[in-house]
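Subject: for your reference before the review

Hello V.,

The reviewers asked for a structural picture of the protein, and I figured it would be easier to keep everything in one thread rather than splitting it across files. Below is the amino acid sequence we used in the manuscript, unchanged from the supplementary table.
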Amino acid sequence: MLTAYINMAMSKAHYEILPDGEGYLGKINGLQGVWANADTLEFCREELREVLEEWILIGLKMGHPIPAIEGIDLNMKEAA
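And here is what came back from the structure prediction:
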């Protein structure tokens, strides 16, 4: 499920070319604080995936709600 979430989130990533040849900026709308920049688009994608993975792990550890993406929900459900 974690891999599916990461892959779906990455499929929603948006990339921009930074001015003056400063590289690329990548972000995933709806996931606050998940962004990366790098000299090449390939490195920007790799960095964005790493940031997303860390964001998920820290969010879950701290009990922050993680937005569901396309029906994939990583939040812990309390037993009734």
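For the response letter, the relevant points are probably these. The two ends are 22 Å apart (CA to CA). The CA atoms of residues 3 and 75 lie 14 Å apart.

Happy to draft the paragraph if you're swamped.

O.
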